[in-house]
Fold each of these.
Amino acid sequence: MNLNSERLATRLEAAVGTLEERTDAEVVVVLTASTWRGQREAVVFGALMAWLTTAFLCWSPWVFADTLIPLESALVGLLTWRVARRWPETLRRFAPTAAARAHEDAADQAFLAEGVDATRDRLGVLVFVDLAANRVTLRADHGILGRVSDAQLTRLVWDSASEDGLLASLHALGDLLAERIPATRVERDGLSNRPRVLA
């Protein structure tokens, strides 16, 4: 799925518009390529590889020049750090807790930054999509959580691997919200239906 696709933005905007016609809830979709940068983990991984290289060079059965061991270890550590910084998704499997924490933090920040917490009657829902992790997080305001349990929101199955899957997931969210918080207001759309794209 291409983040900057006009087709995707138009389809998501239409889906959110259709969803909001059936409920008083305000839904905001935020898309990001990746929430986890892995900066600290890249440094740790580079240092670990430098240390392992030093251990190998010092205690291997082969003979290496003693004067080059620090240089070779530093070079391996630097190259490992550089590769990990260039492709942070390769480190995601080694630091799943850090990646999950970064995703949750980014969803919390987007909830506040996009004004989802300031909707009328506190009926805002953020759908935060991390395409690299194929992960979707929902953040619902107090007005939503008073009528829809967190367990009901958690049970929704999200497919962010394809446009059609994401649209079907939004439709399922719309069904739940329409059942619990049906449309009663004539005036809607305090927030734009256009999906936000984070760099």
Amino acid sequence: MPNPFSKLFWRDGSPRPDLVAAPGTPPAEAPAATAEKPKRGRADHLKDFRFPEGVSGNPGGRPKNRSTKAVLNELLEMLDSQGITARERLAEVVLAKALKGNIRFVRELYDRADGRPKQAVDLDGNITIRVEYADSHADTPEAPPGPAEDPVGPETV
């Protein structure tokens, strides 16, 4: 393990004058507690290149991008050399695959043409909540602390 004091001395063993005070000199005084610390965070050397306060570096704001849906709709409405849109070509492909018996495309056609069927959710049933406590007090003859037993049965919500 290196000696922690090795940086205080030159290789010949003499003390470094820039790090170690000479014998007989008074120790350097600590800076006053009221002294103001230098500000950190902003580079003062870039002060000339900053925007003045209250002036934006981007007065137009962030450029407005078109939504993916708008771009996709524009591409789907483009005509090919035969005057058919990409949307019509895709519909032909989906229809052809559905007619060949591919059930995924059959389902897609029905979902697009008639709308996806509503999902029925049954909310009329009773829900039983049962709480069981771990038997952490097996070595004691008394019952573990917990809610009193309900003589009627479990609660239904």
Amino acid sequence: MKLYAAPLTPVDEEYIRKARSFAEERMAPIVEDAEQQRRQPALLREMIAEFTKLYIPKTLGGLGASTMTICRELEELARVDYGVTFAFEVHNHAAMVLSMTENEALRDRYLPGMLSRELGPTPRLSAAAPRCRMGTTSSTARRPG
């Protein structure tokens, strides 16, 4: 029995390598300390600037990555810390939904900031537990400035 199937869509191996490198070199050294101190790692803004554009269509300034590329990117990040990756993913889904709105004024006002370090992340990890448990995740929205 063969349990593995090849991806149905192309995978951008460059972004998979970037995600793996980011997780190992940037996330791994600091996530445990951030978790114990009950604070969201500042590197979430770096993750947003580097990877959120995968979720957004090219016509709106993103990379329009395949579903398999996004899944593999998340797999590499979550391997190091699921809680931080989950907080990052909440931001990504908000950006993706915003990219789909027909309200161009709203999209044009907020999407560029959500693709950079300017806006976000909105999720905030609220409990000091090794490798954040899902029941301890909360979200807070704040207006910049």
Amino acid sequence: MEYNIQKDTHQYQKSKNEIMDFLHHIFSKLMGNSTPKVAFISQGREGEVVYQEGFKEIRFYMEFGGTDVVFYLTIPSASQWEKSTGFLLNKRDEILSFVATETQKYQAPSCDFKIESNAILFTKKIVNNHK
């Protein structure tokens, strides 16, 4: 009988991940924390935007900018995402979009935003008065 340790290890890892995902889902539901949310901490010209999902959170440094940039959030690069945040890389775009949209909605309704590789920029909206 031939034993394929690589196949068994893959099956074990897959089962382990499925169990962990299931447990995270159940605990989040029980604790009422399954819906992502953001909180804002202001400390003068700087602060943090805190993304929370279940038991995990990411803190994004926020600072006022200059000229057209009203303020910006510092974000981990794609290569540092998982190590810095504890979230999988395939959730990065979804999380950053949610953070940017919620921040615009509650902190900067008169701004547009642009997600770059290492920052989310909030800039003055360009108003076109020409008809």
